[in-house]
Amino acid sequence: MIKIFEDEQAITNQIAKEMKRHLLNDGKPVFCLASGTTPEKSYRQFATEVKDNSRLKDLRIVSLDEWVGINRTSEGSCYQMLNKDLFSPLELRDSQIEFFNGTASNLQNECHRIDQFIESNPITFSLMGVGMNGHIGLNEPGCPVLDHSNVVDLSEETKIVAQKYFNQTTSLDKGITLGLGQILKSKRVIVVMTGERKAQIAKEIIMNPKAQLPAQVLLGHGHIDFYLDREAAKWLDKETLNKGE
Questions:
Q1: How many other C-beta atoms are found inside a 10 Å radius of the C-beta of residue 11?
Q2: Helix (H, G, I), strand (E, B) or coil at 150
Q3: Quick one: which of 159, 192, 203 has its CA closest to 68?
Q4: Which of 134, 148, 183, 217 could in theory staple to 213 by disulfide, Cβ–Cβ 3.0 to 4.6 A?
Q5: Tens of pLDDT along 49-95?
Q6: pLDDT on residue 245
Q7: Helix boundaries (H) for 35-141
Q8: Whole-prediction pTM
Q9: 8 A C-beta contact, residue 245 and residue 4
Q10: Contacts of 35 (CB under 8 A, 6+ apart)
Q11: Phi, psi angles (nearest 5°) of residue 151
């Protein structure tokens, strides 16, 4: 379902609320979370609300994606962003975090390791952002729908947009990511798009079925909601907006 919120803060509040609900109510909470600027406020709010909750000891985090060749401690790595916004504030143990190593000598072994973890620990909650080209994780336009993780060639747009995460110009060529099929199997998925900068891609995803963008694979599933604020939804037609509300 497409749900339209008044502003980014309203989405932040709702996501933090859902994360808390899944932490408290899932028998074995396993979260798969996108890094980046869109969800960071939700993570910080969630961390503030549950920091002293006893259920945190049961939470496991599984990696969504990582830049190949970038050390996890480097500014701009997916791990580093999530560590700053969530892992560190919650004081999660290393054993609670199963994350891709983008500098591993054998990336296929990394894929297999994460796939095995998910087989034994099914994802109960996923929060996905959407790239400016409609990618989910690092599943770029044209990528097949896979039920396993894989190494992908990054699009030129992703290479350019991703520079905002780094302190200096950084060479990016490949990424390692969960497959769209693995994300689909999550018990609950939220896909979030906020701000005017996401208005064009939101329109393409929701109103142009011929676009064949990765994010469109997640449309039309009962356990998956798309959360947009008014700015991101500004070019959707009234019928779509009414359905969202």
A1: 25
A2: strand
A3: 159
A4: 134
A5: 999 999 999 999 999 999 999 999 999 999 999 999 999 999 999 99
A6: 44
A7: 40-50, 78-82, 88-90, 107-120
A8: 0.96
A9: yes
A10: 64, 65, 78, 79, 81, 82, 85
A11: -100, 130
Residue 172 per-residue DSSP state:
-
In order of 29, 65, 126, 242, 243, the CA distances from 61 in angstroms are 9, 12, 10, 35, 33
Backbone φ, ψ for residue 102 (5° rounding) = -70, -10
- Domain 2-239 is in which class? alpha beta
Q: What's the CA gap between 190 and 39, in Å, rounded?
A: 11
Q: What digits encode the pLDDT tens for the residues 37-49? A: 889 999 999 999 9
Residue 32, H or E segment: strand 30-33
Structure tokens at 75: 């500014």
Whole-angstrom distance, CA of residue 122 vs CA of residue 226: 21
What number of helices (H) and strands (E) belong to the chain?
9, 10
pLDDT at 242: 60
Are 94 and 79 a contacting pair, CB within 8 Å? no
Contact at 8 Å (CB) between 229 and 195? yes
pLDDT at 121 over 50: yes
- Judge whether 60 and 92 are in contact, CB under 8 Å: no
The pair of structure tokens assigned to 227 is 């959360």
